[in-house]
Amino acid sequence: MPASKYVEAISKRRSIYNLGNKLPRSHAEVTKTIEDAIRQCPSSFNVQSSRAVILYGNSHKKVWDIVKAALKKVTSAEQYAASEAKVNGCFLAGAGTVLFYEDTEAIKGQQKAYPLYADNFPVWSQHSSAIAQFAVWTALAQDGIGASLQHYNQLIEADLRQAFDIPEHWSLIAQMPFGSIEKPADPKTYIDDEKRFIVRGE
Questions:
Q1: What are the backbone dihedrals phi and psi of residue 151, each rounded to the nearest 5 degrees, phi first?
Q2: Would you say 179 and 91 are in contact if contact means Cβ atoms under 8 Å apart?
Q3: CA–CA distance, 70 with 163 (Å, rounded to integer)
Q4: Whether the model pTM is above 0.70
Q5: Residue of 148, 127, 125 whose CA lies nearest to 137
Q6: Domains of the chain with CATH codes
Q7: Per residue in 140-158, pLDDT tens?
Q8: Which listed site, 1, 78, 112, 190, has its alpha carbon 20 to 30 Å from 63?
Q9: How far apart, in whole angstroms, are the C-alpha atoms of residue 173 and residue 154?
Q10: What start and end residues bound the annotated signal peptide (predicted)?
């Protein structure tokens, strides 16, 4: 595939906040897309520390009910009303959610095996997760599935662990609600290239 086609493909990845619960493919096909995308992502020393929980139906809804319950404890009534509306309209309204985790036991294993790089492995783990998130987001976009990336981590991690029997050594990194695109994202804007890129050598 020419590089231009790849750039065209990744340009379809946008933050979609108007989601619906319809999908153009079956749950099995969407699940395979997500798993395949994560499987192909690089990681430090090929540790493959990225983990994912893929949720549909009532399990998907439970994630966002947990988020709302957590927000209610830490916001005023006025703030909660706005947050509840956002959660209901932008996230819960979708068809599914991917919970992205990193396996801390795998990272500790790297630190033990390669002590010279011990301080770097947690950072590289975050890099690996970011790549996995981007890969899944982009792959879903190729099938016309909208998504966004959320980070309610500390508020909900313990409750998610209990609700879905998540291993203790999996650390929550992000949540990605996905579904049908009920309204496309606004056109993307860009800062000037001169502020972003330096090219030397000619």
A1: -140, 75
A2: no
A3: 14
A4: yes
A5: 148
A6: 17-195 (3.40.109.10)
A7: 999 999 999 999 999 999 9
A8: 78
A9: 10
A10: none
For the chain, percent of residues with pLDDT exceeding 70: 99
3-class secondary structure for the chain? Answer: CCHHHHHHHHCCCCECCEEECCCCCCHHHHHHHHHHHHHCCCCHHHCCCEEEEEEEHHHHHHHHHHHHHHHHHHCCHHHHHHHHHHHHHHHHCCCEEEEEEEEHHHHHHHHHHCHHHCCCHHHHHHHHHHHHHHHHHHHHHHCCEEECCECCHHHHHHHHHHHHCCCCCEEEEEEEEEEEEEECCCCCCCCCHHHCCCCCCC
* pLDDT greater than 80 at residue 3: yes
pLDDT at site 2: 81
Residue among 13, 49, 41 nearest 169 (CA): 49
- The answer to whether the CB of 52 falls within 8 A of the CB of 32 is no
Tell me the two tokens of residue 134: 């981007």
What sign results for the dihedral spanned by CA atoms 156, 168, 50, 141?
A: negative
